[in-house]
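Hi support team,

I submitted a single chain yesterday and got back a structure, but I'm not sure I'm reading the token output correctly. Could someone confirm the output below corresponds to the sequence I sent? I've pasted both exactly as they appear in my results page.

Thanks,
R.
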Amino acid sequence: MVKEKGILRQEFLKGQLETLAFFREQTKRELQLENMLETFLRTMGKYLNTMENMNEIMHELMEIDEPL
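Hi R., thanks for writing in. Yes, this is the structure output for that exact sequence:
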């Protein structure tokens, strides 16, 4: 490949290492983003449950049989 491209072996290897480092960094960022998203979704689920519970309590306090 080096001969075909007409570059030095060191230049070729440097490029390959830079490409590998870039992909590793991208993978790391993708994993961090996925973890953040999972945390966000869990938190939103907890908020939803809390709001539903509050809604039920309000219905009981107001003695309403139908949902708001």
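A quick pointer for reading it: The first helix runs from residue 2 to 5. Let us know if anything else looks off.

Best,
Support desk
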